[in-house]
FHA domain-containing protein (Linum trigynum), 145 residues
Amino acid sequence: MVWSLLPVDPHSGEEKYYIYRKGTYKVGRKGCDIVISKDKGVSRVHAEIIVDEMISMSRLPGGSNILSRVRIKDSSKYGTFINKNHASNEKVHELPSKETTLKDGDVVCFGTGNAAYRFSFVPFVVYNMFCSEPLAVRGKVSSIG
């Protein structure tokens, strides 16, 4: 499974980011895993995206989805917002411990709001048509989540 942060405005010139494994990813203006240059209100280290586990999005019996646990923690001056223009708007910097859980489809705004990204699940498909060592391919794919 793969998570992505995709610019809401595809013509913004901002990069697309993909998360393949659990860990902590720093978001900020400079020297971070996810670099945001569009908004001057983005701090040097603005937030952290914390992936506690990577689990398949497959359906369980009974209809519930298994989701990875992904949190976002704000450490900025101007704030981080989830779904800023919707009724379910969350100001991460005002929440207890300045963090919340991200869900598939959430729009995350960093800084003054000019840098907006959609947090989305991306299906990860591997085709093995001509490999003489299928177990080797399976091991490589498993290593990235």
